[in-house]
Design goal:
Length: 550
């Protein structure tokens, strides 16, 4: 008689034959999921669906509406896209998977693109998906992997594997092609139905799919011109520095030339603050600077560096936080989850905020509030009166929302959207997520300044992201200037601080799989010490040692 083992799915217990694969259990769960199941968490570790269960286990299944499943879905689509292009257009045709944009990923081609080409590629992808081709994980010797990617003329992959300390490398095979991805993969193409391609220009197109935050249907593509141009400018500067992928940065680290790159990167960003300040001063009517951006974008340091730049031009900036205009705690709106919603615009005393800013612009002496987060009430202890040289800098998650300060003429306002818009890739097919970049920053800051462990930060990250999707990203196009606070060298520095924290997450923790994913990601970068990072760096806001610490 075949040996039986016990598995637990949610609160249900099943007896199954030892050696049963996760795929063979899908009949128990698939009807509860809107999309095909892509991956499973087995005793808190992510496992692909061909994993064989040999002991009693607790199992959770995920489709693309959950973060773990969505990453697998995205990785699978990227692999199908790469293979489709090679089968359709030739082995010499290559792409670079770039940055996120409008709930999708921009794909840059090394061949000329038109709308017909994009349509043909999409049709080829759907053909591969309908064929239900297997995606197989294979383990090969490191040297064999290097030789394969040399033959494929993929020097970026060669560089990534060179810096990998393992003797054996896991590759994925689809059709006749092998590739390296640090994320998990689906075991078949059939589960990758939900996607579309959108033509952008003759250099590239968008790969779009449902996300964790928009899981119904893929909305019509909106081209965010400002954001696209900022990413383009960043990519061009990276190319100027000869640093496009992680191996390029690792080479600089291993050659002991990182201090010069740090100084160059910091100098470039400081120059940008001065250019923004000049643009503000040139607009003589601009008296209010509104700054917003997602979590861990470096808004606090950015506002202070902008203050310094404005002072060099003879202006006297004064910073106000929208957080000081929260309604009294008992008036805070309640969210769908039944908890106080501090992220919504209704959590701001908008009537008071709008009237006081208007009074300040009229050069009246105004008694402004400071919000007491212990008592949940505004306290009025200081007065503010502006003169001709004063400029207000207002920071808050709703600062770009066009529903605030509607009583103030547009010419009086200068809006800045700030984010860490990472353009450095691991290689041409594995990008560095801007969200992951910010998450690493936040884990370090939460631990250093608030005493929170990794699990606390990871537990709250989803709600932070929901707030960004609802209240920040929809208004990014309102900005007069988009400020990219990502530093070319920073992942190596963040690794030094965050890796030990990630290793503290025990296997029993529900956040173990996410901690391990981040560790696997960081393995692609050599560590960089913070010794050469100046005290006024945006990165100091997270790793400590900032000269702007109050």
């Amino acid at each position: 008689m075949e040996e039986q083992i016990q598995i637990k799915i949610e609160d249900r217990i099943y007896k199954v034959t030892k050696g049963t694969t996760l795929e063979e259990l899908l009949y128990l769960e698939q009807k509860k999921h809107r999309y095909p199941i892509l991956i499973a968490k087995v005793n808190n570790s992510l496992k692909e669906l061909n994993y064989k269960i040999m002991k009693d286990k607790k199992i959770e299944f995920y489709d693309l509406t959950e973060s773990a499943g969505n990453r697998v879905h995205t990785s699978g689509l990227k692999f199908v896209l790469i293979v489709a292009i090679k089968e359709l257009l030739g082995e010499d045709k290559n792409i670079r998977i770039e940055h996120s944009l409008d709930k999708g990923i921009y794909i840059e081609a090394d061949f000329k693109v038109d709308e017909k080409t994009v349509k043909d590629i999409e049709e080829k992808m759907r053909e591969i998906i309908q064929e239900d081709r297997p995606i197989t994980k294979v383990t090969v010797e490191k040297e064999d992997a290097i030789n394969y990617f040399k033959e494929m003329k993929d020097e970026a992959k060669v560089g990534v594997i060179k810096y990998n300390v393992n003797s054996y490398i896991n590759l994925y095979k689809l059709g006749d092609y092998y590739n390296y991805f640090y994320n998990k993969m689906p075991i078949s193409t059939r589960v990758l139905q939900a996607f579309e391609l959108n033509y952008v220009d003759n250099r590239g197109f968008m790969l779009r799919f449902p996300t964790v935050y928009i899981n119904d249907k893929i909305p019509e593509y909106t081209h965010h011109k400002n954001m696209f141009e900022v990413f383009n400018a960043c990519r061009k500067w990276n190319a100027l520095m000869n640093i496009n992928n992680a191996p390029d940065l690792n080479k600089i680290v291993s050659n002991s030339n990182i201090e010069e790159l740090i100084r160059i990167s910091e100098n470039k960003l400081n120059s940008e603050f001065l250019e923004i300040a000049k643009d503000i001063v040139k607009r003589k009517e601009a008296k209010i600077i509104l700054m917003a951006g997602p979590s861990s974008s470096g808004k606090t340091t950015s506002s202070k560096k902008l203050c310094m730049a404005l002072k060099t031009l003879g202006k006297m900036p004064y910073a106000i936080s929208m957080d000081d205009y929260f309604v009294e705690r008992e008036e805070t709106p309640i969210g769908k989850d039944g908890k106080p919603d501090y992220e919504s615009l209704e959590a701001i005393d908008l009537k008071l905020f709008d009237s006081q800013i208007a009074s300040l612009l009229a050069k009246e002496n105004v008694k402004i509030p400071t919000y007491n987060f212990i008592t949940g009430k505004k306290e009025y202890k200081k007065y503010l009166q502006l003169n001709e040289q004063n400029i207000l800098i207002i920071e808050g998650i709703h600062a770009l929302d066009n529903r605030i300060l509607k009583n103030i003429p547009k010419e009086n306002k200068y809006k800045i959207y700030t984010s860490a818009l990472t353009e450095l890739n691991i290689d041409n097919h594995n990008r560095v997520s801007t969200t992951d970049n910010r998450l690493l920053r936040r884990i370090i800051r939460d631990n250093k300044t608030r005493g929170h462990n990794v699990e606390h930060t990871l537990a709250g990250w989803h709600s932070v992201r929901v707030g960004e999707e609802n209240y920040i990203f929809p208004y990014q196009d309102e900005a007069d200037y988009t400020l990219n606070t990502a530093l070319l060298y920073e992942i190596g520095v963040l690794k030094t601080y965050v890796e030990p924290l990630l290793y503290s997450v025990e296997k029993e923790s529900p956040y173990y799989a996410e901690a391990k994913r981040l560790i696997d990601f960081l393995r692609n970068f050599l560590p960089i010490t913070a010794d050469a990072i100046p005290q006024d760096s945006i990165l100091r806001e997270f790793i400590g040692g900032s000269c702007y610490t109050e």
